[in-house]
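Slide 14.
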Amino acid sequence: MSGTGRGDGGHGRLGSVLSGLVVAVGCVLFLGGFVWGAVEYQPYTVPTDSMDPTVKAGDRVLAQRISGDQVRRGDVVVFKDAQWGDMPMVKRVVGIGGDEVACCDSEGRLTVNGKAIEEPYVQRMPGGLASTTGFGATVPKGQLFLLGDERSGSLDSRVHLQDQGQGSVPRSTVTARIDAVAWPLGGLVERPRGFAALPGGVSDPGPVTLVVGSVVLGALLILGGAAYGPVVRRLGRPRRTGRAEPTGRTDGEVTHGVR
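Slide 15: predicted structure.
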């Protein structure tokens, strides 16, 4: 008789607590991902097509903040050197201190210390050549030799071969390494496997995947936790059956009409 009160109050309170906890965790992941990304990465807009097809003019990229000591062959780096115009530039590292860099071998490939390097990003160049002009250089210790992926038009180490460093730049000029193309969505910038067999191998990608995953997961948890209350309330509403309650007398008398 008196048992008309709802018995799910405990479950409702537990659901609200869990919902709040999910939202809190989502906020931590979402904001933490942004902070982590801001510490690790700097956004950069590529100004020219010298790195086409890897990155194109106008692409927004995420460049991990690193020191020059962390650079390895095959990395696409952001650097600034006075002899190159003293402005941020993007090129690919093909040689480090002590390397003998030359082009081209009998199959039109770049060689490093006599080893031919397979570079899939130059396949669209005229004749599939790794360089439209032949060259050779010894990279001084502590220096980097850099080429653009668009070898027919890139102004890179090849046009500075007569400089003191034979076209190379100091490692200290490097400020960041490009990990991904953020816009338009292009994904991770892969390390070319052609350099992997050389001493030191290629570098590992930075935490860009984890950073993006943290932000996305946090956003989903926030939305899911915030939607819990409205969804539960909607599901908890009594459903209307559409059946009318019987009216009139129950002793068999007809109740409609005038008596």
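Speaker note: The longest strand covers residues 174-183.
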